[in-house]
Write a structure and sequence with these properties.
about 0% strand, about 75% helix, about 325 residues
Amino acid sequence: MATVVLPAAARGIGAAPLAGFGAAAALALVGALRAPAGTAVLGLALFGILHNVLELRYVTGRFEAVLAGPFLKLLVALITGIVVCRLLPVSGATRAAEILLVYGLLAAACLHSLRRRPVLLAAAAALLLPAAAASLSFPGYHFVVLTHLHNLVPLLFLLEWSRGLPRGRAGFVAVQCGWVLVIPALLLGGVLDPWFAPATATAGRLAASYTPPAWLDTSAGLRFVAVFAFLQTMHYVVWVWFLPRHAPEASAAFARRAPALRGGRAWLLGLAAAAALAVLFATDYAQGKALYAALASYHAYLEFPVLLVLVLGIDPIRRSPRASR
């Protein structure tokens, strides 16, 4: 008889996880205000690869009905093209090719999800074409926006997970919106400027990656680095602590798809890869970051079709034939 894994959301959620989010947000905010560059760099070196592995486990397990078959193979092929672009020397051509591949992936996701909804598919095409043109015209803004949007993505996954909570969902959602939306707004609005430590040269260099080009030479640069450092840290809290603990059904579904990584083996893979990358970061930070940016494309872009399904209100869990086993 197959073992039934009861979704954690169906069992409810107590005060401890909410307190955990609160404590993590407080510590992440202190780090973002007092040492934004150090918080961003150290967090990436320690948890970057590990959270990649655990997020892929969650997304491909929980949303196995979406990420499957020829569609998954197409997505992997497109993302592999993005990885190749990121491994090549940065140039106008590689940046343009990556942007085109990103919009190709979005178009494939729209076509797959909306093929029976022609009106919505036409509307999606009407949005994607000018968006692609804008990204190609202003690539600097394209990559900065994607960088910050990726750190906002956990909110949608947490909202989707919380739909199964029998009680306390309003409080859970309020806590998530607090750290995802309210704290970054306070940082960007300058409300917390009095608590910032003096800017460092490292923070100035990082600002180029996290600040819209028009604001790069203003005081907003340090604010954007702080926002990134804060949200990145909380991003790791979601994928390394909360969802592995509170969504065991996703891990069980992933184990059926990839039995070689069942149990703690995914953790071992993530920790081993993280250790190897940490050594590279310590010896050559620029090369380590470039390699990480390339490998991270898989977990970042596989989110897109799932997010599209969630935004459209389609239930990807109920459509899975395995979800009821």
